[in-house]
Amino acid sequence: MLATLRRGLPTYRRWIGWQGGSGKYDVQWNAHERFWVFANQWAILFGTDDPTPERMLNIVCTINSPKKNYNRRCAGLFVRDMDDAVYLTHSGKIGGGRKGICKSAFLPNYRGAQETVAWADGKESEVIVIGRIDGERFVAQVANFVREVQRFKTNATGRGDPAADAQQQRMPPAEPQFNEEFSGQRRGYHVRSKIETNCDHGLIVNALAKALQAIGLKVANDKPRDLYVAGRSGKMKTLFEIKTDVSTSTIYQAIGQLLFHSDTQTQPPTLVMVLPTAPDATTKCVLERLQIKVLVFGWQEHQPTFNNLMEII
């Protein structure tokens, strides 16, 4: 896992600060994904400060796992599926030494995949599945998790960009907002392909949000709605439902979610189902009758791309 995270990255000797102390360590900086990683025999630390100009770095999160057996006090955990593929997971235990920075506050605000795992002693618990450690998009999934923790801490402490904070204060309280999503849906931990595709969910949501923002649209999301384009009144102009496979049950679920969440408005929004491939002819006809458009995504350098976005918009 560490070899994958560090591969091809430059090393910087920098001070790392934490509550009550600091130390100088070698960190690897991923300029493309915008995060650094430090690891030794007792800790794996992550942050988002660029170490090129900075001499003191702040820790965003740790993903520490026990060396042997198991220890539920450790936030990090390696888990296996039924075919012995190994995934990096996190309990959601977030520290920071400040009020409001804790697991009980983080998990309700986290819009990613939480799956059930079985421990060696027979107990079960919910964990965040970050990604399969030998997966081709593992580094991007780790980066997304680190940024999700950073977003949570910034919102919890109010320590964001002063200019952005000032702008936010001038906005009406009901103004819809977009919060980056890390990954996935809930459950489905019994099939490897389902787990792996769920780890991509947040990457797709965030990439689509950036693409829409790049053409001047206001985007927002919340727990039940993956993503929507908001008008001046805050109402939905376009509602997106992102799915990472095209199984029959997934298509049925997406149709239900789009119709259910659009029924709250007198003037319904444009409905868009986001899929990895175009549906078959029969499904396409049904979607057309339901006035649901299909946006197909692909992958380029481990990042989602959207071939027909402008056509949809």
What does this structure look like?
A hairpin with a 2-residue loop joins strand 15 and strand 16. The protein is an alpha+beta fold and 313 residues long. Helix content is 29%, strand content 28%. It contains nine helices and 16 strands. It is globular, with a radius of gyration of 20 Å. Among the domains are: 2-62, no CATH class; 200-313, Trna Endonuclease, Chain: A, domain 1 (3-Layer(aba) Sandwich). The strands form three sheets. Strands 5-1-2-3-4-6 form a six-stranded mixed β-sheet. Strands 11-12-13-14-15-16 form a six-stranded mixed β-sheet, with helices on both faces. Mean pLDDT is 83; it is low at 160-174 and 183-191. It has helices spanning 2-6, 103-109, 138-157, 162-170, 192-198, 201-214, 248-262, 281-289, 309-312, and strands at 11-18, 21-30, 35-39, 44-47, 56-58, 61-62, 76-80, 86-90, 114-118, 124-132, 219-220, 227-230, 236-242, 270-275, 292-300, 303-306.
